[in-house]
Amino acid sequence: MTTDPPASGDSEALAAIEKLGPREKWRIVKNIAVLGFAFMIHFTAFHGTSNLQSSLHTDGSLGAYTLASIYGSLIVSNLFLPVLVIRLLGCKWTIVVSFMAYIPYIAAQFYPSFATLIPSGLAVGFGGGPLWCAKCTYLSIIAEAFSIATRRKVRTEYLIVKFFSLFFVFYQLAQVLGNLISFTVLSYGEPVGEGALNGTEVQMVSPVNISVTCGANYQASVGGNGSQGVIDLKRPDESQLNTLTGIFLACMVGASISVAIGVDSLKRYNMIRTGHANQVSGTRMLIITLQQLGNKYQLLLLPITAFIGVEQAFIAVDFTKSFVACGLGISYIGYAMISFGLANAVAAACTPYITKHLGRRLLILLTALFHATLIVFMLLWRPTDEYYNYSIIVACWGLADGVWLIQINSLSGILFPGHEEAAFSNFRLWEATGSVIMYATSPFLSTFQKLLFVLGIMIVGTIGYGTIELMEYRVKRVVVAEKRFEVVSQQADDS
Fold first, then answer.
1. CB 3.0 to 4.6 Å from 77: which of 129, 170, 177, 320, for a disulfide?
2. Could you tell me the strand order of the sheet in which 229-233 lies?
């Protein structure tokens, strides 16, 4: 590992950190571990609750509209609130307050209605923007502090990657733990393998047929020849739901307390704060984000970015309801989604290594073909009451989602050097927009139509990405040709 020599501007920072004591490096590691643990238990509650929304709150599509309100307010929050809140509270207390903004959403599960869930969903979105910005800032600054404390024995850039990796190990476990708790609580007392006939109540003239009524064929209203039947997904007992909500509420309170007590304020390391990102105002952030849309590469990236939001929303709302809840019962949603979290974590860990060997272009092409094949299979598949089938499907979706997230995120940084701030802002903006569109239209489209929409926008997005790669290839060819022409010209002049 190559090292950076101490910069002249580091001497005061190094002296100040050394005054904190020889074990400061371990204190920094402790801060990362506590922060990662807090995010893990916080999002254990959030993911575990959100995955149940569309199946539990079906009256008036309350669950889908609640999720739409979360991601709609997150769009506004990302553009305007992070700078203001972080300047006012600092990173540590921004995280604590933002955690607390999620608590009403969990508490509203005790009394679910439009009057409780929609406002609390908006609060989650408004808290989400400052939360993630504060987390990124905190990890970046303490990575620099750690680098200075070790006298630049490890590059700051390398430490930032390692610290983010450690953090996301904790974060990815949230999806697994949240769904494991959900499945354990909601399935308690159910006979193993009871299946969909007890998980779903259907008022129809004909008997229940999972292969006909669930999966891509699922719709809230079915029947023909003038007879209408309504699929009524059986809710678990209120006592089970209240127990689950109580556990998740305790997780969020515990997360807030963990950060408040166990994480040091960045005032401890203010001497090494050299970044200027926090000096960008919310209004300025909006302006540079919109100006970035003038870049043709950014416009071509919009469909694939929106696709990521769309496919994640489909899994959270439609797969959990029309496949798992309909075919197995609401209690099995958590069981199936555990596979999604595990597969997502595996994809996040393996994608950099696979990219190194296959290259970005081939990996994205293979991912698009894999994901398209999976969607076609879901369109044709007739669901059964064998629960492992659902886990395999959602695990495959999680693998594809992990690759999309890493590749398109990194592409935003690769294509726009010097304009990363605007590029990543656009990524967050259009990803959230894709989610909102999917959540908002969910009550009006059948699952079959939604799968076709996901497939269509993926194809458009992949074509847009391919166009970027083709344009980059042509630009590089021109540059190489010009360099060769210059060399030949110089040789002729010398002769």
1. 129
2. 200-203, 229-233, 221-222
Contacts of residue 84, Cβ cutoff 8 Å, sequence gap at least 6:
282
Give 231's strand partners. Answer: 202
CA 158 to chain centre: 23
pLDDT reading at 5 higher than 50: no
What global pTM score does this model have? 0.73
Q: What is the pLDDT of residues 49-82, one digit of tens each?
A: 988 887 788 777 888 889 889 988 988 887 777 7
In sequence order, the β-bridge partners of residue 222 are 229
Q: Residue written as tokens 């700051």?
A: 156
Which ranges constitute the DSSP H helices of 108-230?
Answer: 114-149, 156-186, 196-199, 210-213
Q: Which helix (H) or strand (E) holds 229?
A: strand 229-233
Among positive and negative, which fits the CA dihedral 93, 96, 99, 100? negative
Integer Cα distance of 61 and 75 in angstroms: 22
For residue 253, count other CB atoms closer than 10 A to its CB: 17
Give the C-alpha separation, 350 to 405, whole Å.
13
